[in-house]
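Handout, section 3.2

Students often ask what a structure token actually looks like in practice. Rather than define it abstractly, here is a full record for SRPBCC family protein. The first block is the sequence as you would receive it.
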Amino acid sequence: MAHVYVSAVIDAPIERVWAIARDFNGHAAWHPFIAESHVEDGFAPDTVGCVRNFVLGNGGHLRERLLALSDVDHSFTYCILESPMPISDYNATFRLTSITEGGGTFVEWQARFDVAPEDEARIKEQVGRATFAEGIVALEAYVATT
């Protein structure tokens, strides 16, 4: 099983970052790879079990289910139901922690998934660097403008 872990610091209070990040369907507003997104069947984007259905800028299509959301822990966990990537059993967690000195926010985004050995390095780079790390940078920029 492959594991990807990315962490960073966003220079904003946790309440501001979480207000944006907790919206499971809000990534289209801040993530540079998301072209469009909607939650299926009219569910609210913070309803555990809801499915977000989205298209990437390159035309790729994904569906992900929200498995857990905690306003206390400032975290959510989700799984991929459909993806153009050659992966299976994908589960990811996005978590924020308040930095007590300075008022910033520590961000952790990690995933575990099965992938064929010949695809592992490429997919880990795609998920870790291109999706998680670039997403955190974009989230910080978005938080700064709201």
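Discussion prompt for tutorial groups: Residues 117-145 form the longest helix (29 residues). How would you have guessed this from the sequence alone?
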